[in-house]
Amino acid sequence: MTDRIAVIRGDGIGPEIMEATLHVLDVLKADLEYEFVEAGMSAYEKTGELLPQATLDTIARLRVALKSPLMTPIGGGFSSINVALRRHFDLYANVRPAISFPNTQARYSDLDLIVVRENTEGAYRSEGQTLSDDGEEAHGDICVTRKGSERIARYAYDMAKSTGRRKVTIVHKANIIKQASGLFLETARRVAAEYPEIETNELIVDNTCMQLVMKPEQFDVIVTTNLFGDILSDLCAGLVGGLGMAPGANIGQREAIFEAVHGSAPDIAGQGKANPCALMLGAAQMLDHLGKTNKAATLRRAIRETLEARDHLTPDLGGKGTTMSFAEAVARRC
Question: How far, in Å, CA of 164 to CA of 166, rounded?
Answer without folding.
Answer: 6
